[in-house]
Amino acid sequence: METPQPRRSGPPGAPGDGPGPRARERAGDPRRNPAASGAGGSAGLAGSLAPTGIVTHAACLEHYAGPGHPECPERLTAVLRALGAETEAGPPDAECPAGTVWLQAPRADLAAIEAVHSTRLAPAIQAACLGGRALLDDGDTYVCSESYTAALHAVGGTLAAVEHVLAGTWKSAFVAVRPPGHHAEESAAMGFCLFNNVAVAARALRARGVERVAIVDFDVHHGNGTQHLFERDPTIFYGSQHQYPHYPGTGAASERGLGPGEGTTLNCPLPAGSGDREWLEALEGRLLRELEQFRPQFLLISAGFDAHRQDPLSGTRVTTEGFREMSRSLVDFARSHCGGRVVSVLEGGYHLSALAASARVHVEQLLRAV
Asked: Are residues 287 and 330 in contact, defined by beta-carbon separation less than 8 angstroms?
């Protein structure tokens, strides 16, 4: 996959790359009402965004799981507005928020996806999408005709961010895409996730010669797919803090990896009702301390903001300030151990204003990666 060059101003996508009318109708078109979300603009971020790339694509708004589904296009619109975007796909006409580098996510090649997933998965998802809206699992992972393309851009955007950070073009990046990825297993879509975006990026980093890659996942739901994909791999560390017991039922503290990968999986399960203090203690007091022994050269973050106390899909009590502090700790770790090289990828978060505010403070901390 050839990494596209970032744009600082002007139209961010090629002709025909913009959001379709269905996405604009559902999510609201910020070009008509930029302040509609109430998430804020670029004030407070200006002047400090230079080292951080923000990767997105309007196609990610076209994935639609049906009316009332929590994994909705409005999630991405809220995040992008919170980061100062004037449209669904980033600033189109004026200069980007000062210092920001925005990049349109390319489509991923199937070869990159199949380095992690079964060769049968992508054709099965594509066929389901071509047939119209369908249910991919026995839960609530629905797709529509545009979902396959959205998923390719979600993976491709993650890979592009990794390439820029690995090359030194950026020190850090936030990949604002959907559908999310950390529940996707080797051979199955699951839990709103089609392809495992972070897992594909981790495998690509290894192929590029990075010897040790760390993935930290703070989504309220355990990333079963990411754990299972790497639980036998001693070169990729997966650490998760999540509500437990909770969906998908995996992520017990006893799950430490298998065979040669034993010890490079670490789960920090937290009970319903836990808040900022407990989540920060799990991160700093256990996960990052153990990660120091692994000595990663690159940090990937599965950034789910659904542990927020306002989120409808969790029973935990993390605040926006709690996400700021966790993000600060992760960036400090990357600065000390990974040369500041960190790429964060959006996972969950289903209360729109809480998601927007939490993503904003997260990106504010990513700017400190240099």
From this structure: no
